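Example A, followed by Example B.
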Amino acid sequence: MAIWMHELRLLLRSRMAAIALVLLAVLSTAAVAAGMIEMARQRAAIDAVSAAQAEDVGAIASYIDREKDAGSAAYYTFHPTWDTPAPLAFAAIGMRDVAPYILRVRALGLEAQIYDGDTFNPELALPGRFDFAFVLVFLAPLFAIALFHDLKSGEREAGRARMLSALPNAGRLWLRRGLLRFALLLAALAVPFVVGALLSGVAAGPMLLVVAVAGAYLLFWIGLAGLVSRLGHGSTANAATLAALWLVLVLVIPTLANVVINRAIPVDEGAKIALAQRENVHHAWEIPREETMRRFYARNPEWANSSPLPDGFHYKWYFAFHQNGDDSVAGRVKVYRERLERRAGAADALGWLLPSVGVQALLTRLAHTDLAAQLAYQDRIRAFHHRLRAFYYNYMFRDRSFGKADFAKAPRY
């Protein structure tokens, strides 16, 4: 233990090493705190949805109760959906920073409602928010370079290398120094993360896995520093070489690969799907109502025995052509999702070659903040919206009155 303490004192005598370790710990702490604050803000917004929903329904119910019209209730009532963040989401915010995590939907056409909130731009989202994943993937390698670029070359330049090499068990000396620096780097990263994970209720398994991933990622850069040092150049040349490798492996190649993947797998913006759905909905005003109802009943035979449309406006026709609008873009939605998943799969494959990409993908997957989590949220919205439609259709297509008490019977997300 005494010899380890001696090595620690020698390391901390280096002002650059001490500053680097303190700065990394500060950045890690700030990133964890920022992530926890953001997740607390998102949870507070989700909690506020219920109170706002009760107020909205109360205001609408008084109006609807006068006419007892289920169509009006379905048209005016918004129903909230939300994607509650996982405990580990503070560490890797991922797509929660660029995709909606709260969406209020009506029983009208769903696809336009989903993709109106589709603001995700993969190119703009590439670097990510300042969170623990950002510090680990982008910044931690620079601190590993700072502590390891001169591990041996510094002693050689100071004239102590031959003397140290002549000592018994000289190999253990270098191993001990390397392990000490690695342990201090990992502690600067992991201690703030573990504290944040414990406060956020993260299970032991995912928490230890993240720490293990952080350690493995640091070891990759430490190993790279060891390979560069074997070239026999000076400390300055080692640092410049490692900095260039960091630039290429962390920034240049991932960015170019992202561009190549996006060009190889083109994906229309979700807003185009919303526009196409709206165009089909608006077209229904220009065609005979009977044609709209035939299309609707062909896909929804359970409502085909509904009474004929009256001469005037009726909401069941209005909701029928909204659902026809959703059906008209179903193929485009399927292609859109498949191509997004293909892009994500290509990025995951790239992660096996580029540790920076692989670590970021793994962290967002563990935190349930990746594309798969966002698509799963959309699937939950669709399932809920299907229940909403069935609920309101049961009133509209059966010509049942809808009063204030019926609002409480509506499905809840």
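Example B, a separate protein, is given below in the same form.
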Amino acid sequence: MKRFWSDVAVTAERGIALDGKPVRTPGRVPLLLPTQALAEAVADEWRAVDGEIDPRAMALTGLANAAIDRIAPDPAAFAAGLAAYAESDLLCYRADAPAELVARQAAAWDPLLDWARRTYDVDFVVTSGVMHRPQPPATIARLQAAVASRDAFILAALSPIVTVSGSLIAALALAEQGADPEAVWLASELDSDWQAENWGEDDLAAPARRARRRDYEAGVRMLELLR
């Protein structure tokens, strides 16, 4: 689709209007945003369209559409899908060698686990290797409750953070402003960075990393705009 509008405005209901006509989601529901800041940011994405619409350049619009069309009809089911990451959170699976990698993982990942311990009064089973180790039932239950308490827009923002980082704990820390977004990004890419440092980066790795970064930053920005 090519740009067909001249004017973009935010309505009194925090919707988006193109030449006075309301924007709707793919499900034909009015695109109404929960905060003025998010509405203005989504409007800016529509203002920035030059020629053909590129959905990759309209990440906030995409997340808002998902919140309304996919998540809002059954937020509990969507939250359960995100909460499942608590069973195999990246932060709980460590290398056993070499010593430098073990130390890097501890330095980047232990503070996030410590934050979750303080915040939710839980503990974690931390193991070496990739074999699954179950977490304490109380830990799973409290992390599930923490996710289930979020509304559809917060869940939409959390989704790319969880899937890109592989860590529900890190995503919750960002939602609660208990961690720095750049530090979380570097923590989630730690293993990939280690491999690139030691064995080089293949031609496909850099574009994939840029795509992950784009999705991650969209989720982080949406969280910030919802506050």
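On Example B: The radius of gyration is 19 Å.
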